[in-house]
Amino acid sequence: MKRKSIKAAEADLTPMLDIVFILLIFFIVTATFIQEKAIDMTPPPPSNSTEISGEALIVRIDENDLIRVGGRLTDVEGIRARVERAIAENPDISVIVQAHPQARNQLVIHSVDQSRSAGVQNVGFAVDGDGLL
Fold this sequence. Notes:
alpha/beta; 33% helix
C-alpha cells in the first residue's frame, strides 16, 4: 500500500494584502479634507488702548444672559432691528459685542450673526479686564 501524504491547505494572503493596501491608498487620495469655518471666540489680550475708530454700538451680554443694545434691554431677535435702526442713523457704525465670561457662547454667536445680518461688517469683541460689564 502506498500512503499519500496530505498537505495542509494554506491560503496565500499576499494578494489580499495588496488589495487592502490599494484600497487604503484609494481612500486617502480621494478623501476631501474640509477646513471648517468658525468664529474665533478667543478674547483679545487686554490692552491699555481702548480706541474705537468711528462710532460703535455696544451689545452687552451679562452673566444672567440679559442682552442690552446701546443700553436698552432686548432679546436676541431684537438685536437686528436695533442695529438696523443704528445703521439708518450712521451707515459707518461698528458693533462691539461685550460678553461676560459666564455668558453663554450661543448668545454671543447669535448676537454677531444678528449684527452681520443687519448689514454691519465691522463686528468685534471686547473683554473687560475684571470680567464685569
